[in-house]
Backbone:
């Protein structure tokens, strides 16, 4: 799984909002703190606002605030809002091949693997909240993986 730039930057902006004592930051402040262009931050914050994760206030003392407490915002929800999921049930119906529908719609050996992968990701990211990301790197507590976790080999890059 790779995070898109929008997903990473969106998480970083939410972390900044969660750490802000006043709770409110402008697009310019977020852009400066994270080293992201102002137009990019504006786009990300628009997506987060439409997704119900932040509130915006206009005016001289305006800016963006979290719509809920950091402990109530799951990382899974944030990533789904910013970029979607690895596997969505509609994926098979929205086939991008030359046929109008996937020829494997009735019997697909890949779909169960993708469903199981998405379920595992949802389980981990659903337990993590924005509050768990507000500390330093050494302080972040990740949900413990089950004893069934298997270390996978890293593919060599050519």
Residues:
């Amino acid at each position: 799984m790779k995070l898109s730039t929008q997903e990473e930057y969106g998480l970083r902006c939410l972390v900044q909002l969660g750490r802000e004592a006043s709770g409110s930051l402008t697009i310019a402040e977020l852009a400066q703190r994270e080293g992201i262009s102002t137009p990019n931050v504006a786009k990300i914050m628009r997506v987060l606002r439409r997704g119900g994760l932040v509130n915006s206030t206009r005016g001289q003392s305006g800016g963006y605030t979290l719509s809920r407490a950091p402990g109530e915002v799951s990382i899974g929800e944030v990533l789904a809002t910013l970029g979607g999921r690895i596997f969505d049930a509609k994926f098979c119906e929205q086939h991008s091949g030359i046929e109008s529908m996937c020829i494997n719609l009735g019997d697909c050996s890949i779909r169960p693997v993708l469903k199981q992968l998405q379920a595992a990701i949802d389980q981990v990211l659903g337990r993590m909240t924005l509050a768990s990301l507000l500390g330093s790197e050494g302080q972040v507590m990740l949900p413990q993986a089950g004893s069934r976790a298997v270390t996978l080999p890293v593919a060599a890059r050519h």
Q: What stands out?
A: The first helix runs from residue 5 to 19. The chain has five helices and two strands. The chain has one domain: 5-137. The first strand starts at residue 54 and ends at 57.
